[in-house]
């Protein structure tokens, strides 16, 4: 147990140094969630500097990743990160822990996982376990148009959080879009990074 604490301290110290020197990158998953406004880069940095490692995820095809739990502005946040080949930190995913997967910010909801899904394969990208889920808001680009799809049946990698949809779901989705079967409209703000 003491060895685990020493190792966790070394990992958190390493994450903190990378954050202080801005030696990290953000995945597209993180950027997509940042634009929702649910959390900020400051929140991610706070968790990586003050949080604690909940899980270590070893993968034979990729680097070991770490699930870090912490709070920023009294809000719990999970950050999944790893080291890249240049010894920089890669922030792979960030999300507020919630049901059905998390009973509390630090405890998985085993019964919720069992009810939610059963393993249906492995992820093409990382080899993680795939499970079926329903995504509350799925952002889908079709012929240049960004569309928000509510309650979409999907497949989620438990390790890298990559999402997939089955061919039948994709065909139905395109059919709904072609028929313009929209149930509402949401406005989108546009940012020009160069301005």
Give me a quick take on this structure.
With 195 residues, this protein is of the alpha+beta class.
List the helices and strands and how they pair.
Blueprint: H1 2-20, E1 24-26, H2 28-34, H3 41-50, E2 52-57, E3 65-72, E4 75-83, E5 89-95, E6 102-104, E7 107-108, H4 110-116, E8 119-122, E9 129-142, E10 145-157, E11 163-164, H5 167-178
Parallel strand pairs: 1-5
Antiparallel strand pairs: 2-3, 3-4, 4-5, 6-7, 8-9, 9-10, 10-11
Helix pairs in contact: 1-3
Instruction: Going across the biggest sheet, name each strand in turn.
Output: 1-5-4-3-2
The portion of residues assigned to helices is 25-40%
- For the record, the CATH class of the largest domain is Alpha Beta
Instruction: Kindly name the structural category.
Output: alpha+beta
CATH architecture of the largest domain: 2-Layer Sandwich
What is the 3D form? globular
Q: Report the biggest beta sheet as strand number plus sense, adding barrel if it closes.
A: 5 strands, mixed
């Amino acid at each position: 147990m003491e060895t685990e604490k020493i190792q966790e301290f070394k990992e958190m110290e390493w994450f903190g140094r990378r954050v202080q020197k801005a030696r990290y990158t953000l995945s597209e998953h993180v950027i997509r969630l940042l634009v929702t406004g649910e959390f900020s880069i400051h929140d991610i940095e706070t968790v990586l500097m003050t949080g604690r490692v909940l899980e270590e995820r070893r993968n034979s095809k990729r680097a070991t990743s770490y699930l870090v739990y912490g709070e920023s502005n009294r809000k719990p946040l999970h950050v999944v990160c790893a080291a890249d080949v240049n010894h920089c930190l890669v922030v792979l995913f960030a999300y507020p822990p919630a049901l059905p997967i998390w009973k509390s910010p630090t405890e998985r909801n085993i019964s919720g996982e069992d009810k939610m899904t059963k393993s249906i394969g492995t992820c093409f990208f990382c080899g993680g376990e795939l499970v079926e889920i329903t995504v509350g808001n799925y952002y889908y680009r079709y012929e240049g148009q960004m569309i928000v799809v509510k309650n979409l049946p999907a497949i989620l990698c438990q390790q890298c959080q990559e999402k997939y949809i089955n061919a039948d779901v994709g065909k139905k989705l395109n059919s709904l879009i072609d028929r313009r079967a929209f149930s509402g409209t949401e406005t989108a703000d546009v940012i020009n990074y160069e301005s």
